[in-house]
User: Fold these one by one.
Assistant:
Number 1:
Amino acid sequence: AQTVTQSQPEMSVQEAETVTLSCTYDTSENNYYLFWYKQPPSRQMILVIRQEAYKQQNATENRFSVNFQKAAKSFSLKISDSQLGDTAMYFCAYDQTGANNLFFGTGTRLTVIP
Amino acid sequence: KAGVTQTPRYLIKTRGQQVTLSCSPISGHRSVSWYQQTPGQGLQFLFEYFSETQRNKGNFPGRFSGRQFSNSRSEMNVSTLELGDSALYLCASSLATLAGVLGTDTQYFGPGTRLTVL
């Protein structure tokens, strides 16, 4: 069974600084997707970034980038120039291609300090 | 394009009752998945529907059921409610073609329905 592990329950970062959130996963599949979602206090789950396993290039979305290490089954999220609006719960998630069945980690609560 | 909508947003029920939650996907999206979020168990997959057929189901009792209509809207039903069913229920939609074409499997979430069972 697929498992997703986020070992950092809480993190904080100063505004404008950079922070990295860790995620590891376990799967025997070769084709899959990995995602980072954020859930602010409103509880709305918002897609941050996604990575297709077949792509070697790390995904980037503005201030958000990932470090995808397929062999190590590691998928970390780097947030640059942190903003107050980045304060949220961040979830790492795995989805086997075509399954539409997301496996989530337990989340990392990120607080951006002004 | 409008996002995923869920109704109602908040619901209070008592033990033993049943409840129906509704989800309207993003226009053009054919797959709808449901998740339960609780402080103790985190986010757990309930089931996924595509073209009115349940394709995938999580490890939940038979009290949890769902369906999808021809317009891709979906409902989930929980019968004989228990205190432990209190949770945020999230619905997500994706394009999800039959071929599972790479690039179409991102799920977009609705705002959720907060269910409280007393």
Number 2:
Amino acid sequence: EIVMTQSPLSLPVTPGEPASISCRSSQSLLHSSGYNSLDWYVQKPGQSPQLLIYLGFKRASGVSDRFSGSGSGTDFTLRISRVEAEDVGVYYCVQALQTFMTFGPGTRVHIK
Amino acid sequence: QVQLQESGPGLVKPSQTLSLTCTVSGGSIHSGSYYWSWIRQPAGKGLEWIGRIYVSGKTDYNPSLKRRLTMSLDTSKNQFSLKLTSVTAADTGIYYCARDHGDDTSGGWFDPWGQGTLVTVSS
């Protein structure tokens, strides 16, 4: 099993300021395709999770360009260039390298 | 656009079988090279991948649930389902279905998701 960790687990943010979340995996997520099998989701209050970033850096359809994903191997980062109030929620990274997919514990983003 | 909707009993007694169905609309379950996944979320906790099924019937299961889990699909109804036997309170939570963009050798991103259905295991 690939174990996923995230930091911080709670992130107070100020609207208009940047924010970043770190995700680490217990083994490399670099796929033979050359892409990293690492995805990001956000679960806003009372909603089901929604895809933000896939393959480490590709923005999902309709996702604001304020969101960006980077990293390779075992270390990944989700960045929000300018936080907006609507960005509050829990952010999860998940590895999809194996057919047994595993999620990180989640990072709760909230307004200071 | 493709939409998913979970359905099933909201209350299941301990030791019984939890059965859920996901109905796919706006697209055919057997079009495209997609897997169809189930993910759950215990109350106030994080997400756990349960398992997935391909149109051929091929399945991949979470090893911790494999012994109790069966997934199936009904292409005529554009649905896929899960059955989890011998449930306990630990199986209580919100169950989501999602389209999985993976392939035979690796998982993939989940998009879209259903709205989720709450299942409570209690006598």
